[in-house]
Structure formats: C-alpha cells, structure tokens
From TrEMBL:
The keyword Transcription does not apply. InterPro entries: Acyl-CoA-binding_prot_CS (IPR022408), Acyl-CoA-binding_protein (IPR000582), Acyl-CoA-binding_sf (IPR035984), ClpP/crotonase-like_dom_sf (IPR029045), ECH/Chromodomain_protein (IPR051053), Enoyl-CoA_hydra/iso (IPR001753), Enoyl-CoA_hydra_C (IPR014748), FERM/acyl-CoA-bd_prot_sf (IPR014352). It comes from Moschus moschiferus (Siberian musk deer). PROSITE patterns: ACB_1, ACB_2. This is Enoyl-CoA delta isomerase 2. The gene is ECI2.
C-alpha cells in the first residue's frame, strides 16, 4: 500500500504524463521579447514528455507541472487550495514556488529539463541510483534467521525507515512467523542511519471513499492489531536501536524485553506536535518504567531523550559506542541465543503474563482515542504541514 501523498501524487502525476499536464491546451500566446526557446521547441518538449521510456518520478513531474504552468500562465494566480485538498495543494505549492520567474525562463527551463530526461532515458546507467524508482513493498522489510536469532530489519533507509501501512502488515506477519520458527530470540532493527522515524505520515493521505472517519477507523484497527502482536509475542524480543527513533517505534519499546541502543540514538514521541496522543501502550508502560512526570515530559511535551537519558530512565537496557555497537550487540545476542529456549520463554511469560490483559485494555483505549484525534483539525493541519515540507521535527 502506498502512502497518501505518494498515492495522490502518483495518481495525478500519471495523468500528467498521459495528457499534456492536464492544463489548457497549447494555444499559447508567447509573444514578447526575443526568446532562446521557440514555441515550437516548447511544444516539442511537451510532446516528448509523453514519450519518456522511464517514469521520471513524482518530484520531477511536479517540477514539470510547475514550469509548464509558469510558462503558459505566468506566476501563480489562483487561490490556494484547502489544507485537505492534498493533490491540488501540492501542485499549487510547486507553481507558487516559482515566484516571478518569467514565462520565457520557465519555457527554457522546461525544455532543458525535458532534454536531460530524454537523454538519460535513452542511455540508462545501471549504476545510477534509482532515487525515484519505488522499491517493491517486500523489500522494505527484511527477515533473516541465523544462529537462533530471527532478525526483522526495517529497510527503507531513504525514508528513515518510516512505517508504511504495508510495513505494519509485514511486521505483524514476521512476528507471527518468528513466534513459531526455530529461533529463540527475535530482534527488531533498522537499516541506515535511523532506527525508525515512526508512522509514515503519508499513510494519512489516502483518504478512502468513506472519508476521514473511515480512514481513522481503519488506522485504529491496524494499530490495535499491530500493538497486540508485541503484547502477545511469546519469545524474548530485543530492539537493536541503530539510530534515532520516533513515534510508534519508541512507544512499543515498553513491550520489548531488552533494548540496546547506539549512543547516536535518540528517542522522540512528538505526539502533541502532531495533534496525536500516545500509543503502543506507552500511556501505561512509560509511567511504569520511568515515573509519571518523566513519562509526561516525553508523551505530553514531546521531550526528545538521548540514548544515555533513555537508559537512565529505564527505557533502554544498555548504550554502546556507535563504532562498536553492531559488533558488541550481536556477539552478546549470539551468546544469549545458546541459553535453553524453553526456559527463556517461560521466564518471559511469568514476567509479562500478569499484565497482559491490562495491556490489551490499554491498547484498545489508546486506539479509540487516536481514532478521534486523527479526525481533528490539529492533527490534519500538522500532517499537511509535514507533507507540504513546511514542518519537520
Ligand atoms: C496505521 C496507522 C498507525 C499510526 C500509529 C501512529 C504513530 C505515531 C507516530 O509514529 S508519530 C511520529 C511520526 N513521525 C514524524 O513525525 C517524523 C517526520 N519526519 C521528520 O520530522 C524528519 O524526516 C526526520 C526528523 C525524521 C528526519 O529529518 P532529516 O532532515 O534527517 O531527513 P529528511 O526529513 O530529509 O527525511 C528523508 C526522507 O524521509 C521522509 N520521511 C522521514 N520520516 C518520515 C515519516 N515519518 N513519514 C513520511 N516520510 C518521512 C522525508 O519526507 C524525506 O523524504 P524525501 O526525501 O522524499 O523528501
């Protein structure tokens, strides 16, 4: 499943390549001073776009759209679409960002861009990174099993391992499989410089036919099922936090048995900034782990903890220098994986079982509250700000 903005953008961008940008036909009035780019060059470039062999990606299509509008209509002169009209707002932002660029310069830029795209689509370099090409969904999670350890690796480093809807499903399936496989320890970790940047905010951009209400209902069901998998996981569960962690990737840590972190990691739950409320049972586990006032500072005010602070508060088991993190942690986990599996499982059960029912109740309540939050103006505005690149943490 693709995210909201991505999907919306893809939908209009694909139309954009089929018909000349879904804007008025090219009966252009391009008089004025001598131009380096003739109307014929420009018309040719518009036609050439439709013949590109490779999809140039959404960013480029957005650039083409904006240049086309500027070249044909001049500076953006239409009212800004509403905050929830994501597609048109993204297009408007791109056009508006060209400011007072002249029609002539926009035409030239458009022709230059198309000519670069045509050249690269004629001679593709296999070594060139396919930045705009979408990875198959299955690549965003990599599951391996070795030395008695099943490792579930978030593998979307270019998006800081933000969790798409598909990834929630894949992680649930991986946990189900790991609970039954031969391994004795299960590890969750990330690829690249981040552990995980939390929920992919574009998940909220795909508003289904039932509207915001239906989107919030589906989100709450998915979140509840996802967190339940952590509550019920029967074997020792270890987080190897290889970098900064945000949102839901932090809150579920309270349901892990052990959390190892690089000293580069940070722990951030910016729910108030996003008009959202705590999940992952953190409204229960965090006060229990670190005391209610420290938990409030994280969950209400969004205080970001360093790895050392998170360790001092009991959320992290141990912090390692980044240079030796992987080596030290995996050596230790390999040694632990030689311990008797049944004994470890039984010990986990006796530690966790007492509060399992409570955790399910907490999870259900947090999802109920979030379902309402996701329909609030505060939340929608925060997400729209992020999607329009105006805000980040
Ligand atoms: C089923 C629903 C369940 C819902 C459960 C609810 C969970 C709540 C949460 O998880 S709340 C937390 C949500 N996360 C965020 O708010 C983080 C948003 N991201 C950022 O603020 C920043 O990206 C950053 C601080 C994580 C990293 O900043 P940096 O400058 O180092 O890197 P970039 O911003 O350039 O990021 C690289 C690209 O990755 C995209 N990206 C990063 N995080 C997310 C995200 N959470 N959602 C969507 N996209 C994300 C970012 O947009 C860049 O993409 P681009 O290269 O295409 O521009």
């Amino acid at each position: 499943m693709a995210g909201l903005a991505g999907r919306l953008a893809r939908r209009w961008c694909s139309g954009l390549l089929r018909s000349p940008l879904q804007v008025p036909a090219l009966g252009l009035h391009m008089g004025g001073p001598a131009m380096r780019t003739s109307q014929k060059d420009f018309n040719n470039a518009v036609n050439q776009v439709k013949l590109l062999k490779e999809d140039p990606g959404n960013e480029v299509k957005l650039k083409l759209y904006a240049l086309y509008k500027q070249a044909t209509e001049g500076p953006c002169n239409v009212p800004k679409p509403g905050v929830l009209d994501f597609i048109n707002k993204t297009k408007w932002d791109a056009w508006n960002a060209l400011g007072s660029l002249s029609k002539e310069a926009a035409r030239q830029n458009y022709v230059d861009l198309v000519s670069r795209l045509s050249a690269s689509s004629e001679s593709p370099s296999p070594e060139a990174p396919a930045a705009d090409r979408k990875q198959p969904e299955s690549d965003t999670l990599v599951v391996t099993s070795e030395d008695g350890i099943t490792t579930i690796r978030l593998n979307r480093p270019t998006k800081k391992n933000a969790l798409t809807n598909q990834m929630y499903h894949d992680i649930m399936a991986a946990l189900q499989a790991a609970s039954k496989d031969e391994s004795v320890i299960t590890v969750l970790t990330g690829s690249g410089d981040y552990y995980c940047s939390g929920n992919d905010l574009t998940n909220f951009a795909s508003v289904p036919p039932g509207g915001l209400e239906e989107m919030a209902r589906r989100g709450a069901v998915l979140l509840r099922d996802f967190v339940n998998c952590f509550i019920d996981f029967p074997k020792p569960l270890v987080a190897v936090v290889n970098g900064p962690a945000v949102g839901i990737s932090v809150t579920v840590l309270g349901l892990f048995d052990v959390v190892y972190a690089t000293d580069r990691a940070t722990f951030h739950t910016p729910f108030s900034h996003l008009g959202q409320s705590p999940e992952g049972c953190s409204s229960y586990t965090f006060p229990k782990i670190m005391g209610s006032s420290k938990a409030a500072e994280m969950l209400i005010f969004g205080k970001k903890l360093t790895a050392q602070e998170a360790c001092a508060q009991g959320l992290v088991t141990e912090v390692f220098p980044d240079g030796t993190f992987q080596k030290e942690v995996w050596a230790r986990l390999k040694a632990y994986s030689k311990l008797p599996p049944n004994t470890m499982r039984i010990s986990k059960q006796i530690i966790r079982n007492r509060e399992r029912e409570t955790l399910h109740t907490v999870n259900a309540e947090e999802c109920r509250v979030l379902r309402e939050r996701w329909q609030s103006d505060e939340c929608m505005n925060a997400i729209a700000s992020f999607l329009s690149r105006k805000a980040k943490l």
